[in-house]
Design brief:
This protein folds into two domains: about 140 residues, Nitrogenase molybdenum iron protein domain (Rossmann fold, 3-Layer(aba) Sandwich), CATH 3.40.50.1980; about 110 residues, Rossmann fold (3-Layer(aba) Sandwich), CATH 3.40.50. The longest helix has 26 residues. The radius of gyration is 24 Å and the shape is globular. The strands form two sheets. A four-stranded parallel beta sheet has the order 2-1-3-4, covered by helices on one side. It has a four-stranded parallel beta sheet with strand order 6-5-7-8, sandwiched between helices. The protein contains ten helices and eight strands. Helix content is about 50%, strand content about 10%. With about 290 residues, it is α/β, with parallel strands linked by helices.
Length: about 290
């Protein structure tokens, strides 16, 4: 009888431990992105991995996060996060506040090891920069959830392959325009231009929302005329005063590019946006 009771107890303990392990494995992992570009990278790296909850912290934001202030709901979301995926390089001005409030929260900076151009944070507009970011996140997810490391590695490899194919395709399409001189509204597209051999000869807004002086505008207009600039690229259809002045004085049209900071809830969204941007540039420079 004693042996039987011991056996029953042992079976109960084993079942209990198996249940505990299964429960631990089933625990949902919450991965929070600071904004849209990081969110799209997340969607690809954790694709089809069960038990992963992916959140875009700043869904309502329509631009970069330079001046974004965290809300109470944002902080509540971060309190439940297992990992916080950010662009880094100074994009998220609130990052220090988050690290202080949640010292145990794992923060992954997608731009780690990416060479910055003059401390410009808009690395996600470089396809090669997004490749590095995907690899950084893939490694972080494997460390956080080693039981499913192979899934994260496969997803990362698949997304990197898609991005590299996109880069080769756009390089081929844009190669006839290599060396073309362009003007941009602000410095966000410097990475894209650098990657595909275009030269940004002037930027209208050195800081987001900062209007150039009359002297600055005169210099920009002179550069446009001297360099034979064919197009000005902005991220908005509405012509702000400075942009309108340059287009009226030079006759050079404005073309709108997508900053990739908002869009559909689609893992392929970034690839589609960059393809469209390339087509817009080709159209403008022909």
């Amino acid at each position: 009888m004693i042996t039987f009771r011991k056996t029953i107890l042992l079976v109960f303990i084993i079942v209990f431990l198996i249940g505990m392990r299964a429960g631990a494995q089933a625990k949902e992992i919450t991965v929070v992105a600071s904004f849209y570009p990081a969110y799209i990278t997340e969607l690809n790296v954790v694709k089809d991995v069960p038990g992963i909850r992916v959140v875009n912290l700043t869904t309502g934001a329509q631009g970069c996060l330079h001046d974004y202030a965290l809300t109470t709901n944002d902080m509540r979301t971060l309190s439940k996060a297992d990992i916080f995926v950010v662009n880094g390089a100074g994009t998220e001005g609130f990052l220090e506040e988050v690290a202080k409030q949640y010292p145990k929260l794992r923060i992954v900076r997608l731009t780690d090891t990416v060479p910055l151009i003059e401390n410009n944070p808009h690395v996600w507009l470089s396809i090669s920069g997004v490749v590095v970011g995907a690899k950084n996140l893939g490694r972080a997810m494997q460390e956080l959830d080693p039981d499913r490391a192979e899934l994260y590695q496969k997803n990362t490899d698949d997304y990197v392959l898609k991005l590299e194919k996109l880069g080769l395709k756009l390089y081929s399409q844009l190669s006839p325009h290599k060396g073309a001189k362009i003007i941009t509204l602000h410095d966000a597209f410097v990475y894209f231009a650098h990657e595909f051999g275009l030269e940004v000869v002037a930027v209208i807004e050195r800081e987001p929302g900062a209007q150039p002086s009359a002297q600055d505008l005169a210099q920009i207009i002179e550069v446009v005329r001297k360099c034979g600039v064919k197009a000005i690229f902005s991220d908005q259809w509405v012509l702000i005063p400075a942009l309108q002045t340059v287009t009226l004085e030079t006759g050079v049209p404005n073309y709108v590019l997508d900053l990739a900071v908002s869009g559909p809830d689609d893992p392929e969204a970034y690839i589609k946006i960059m393809q469209k941007n390339a087509q817009t540039i080709i159209e403008a420079l022909q």
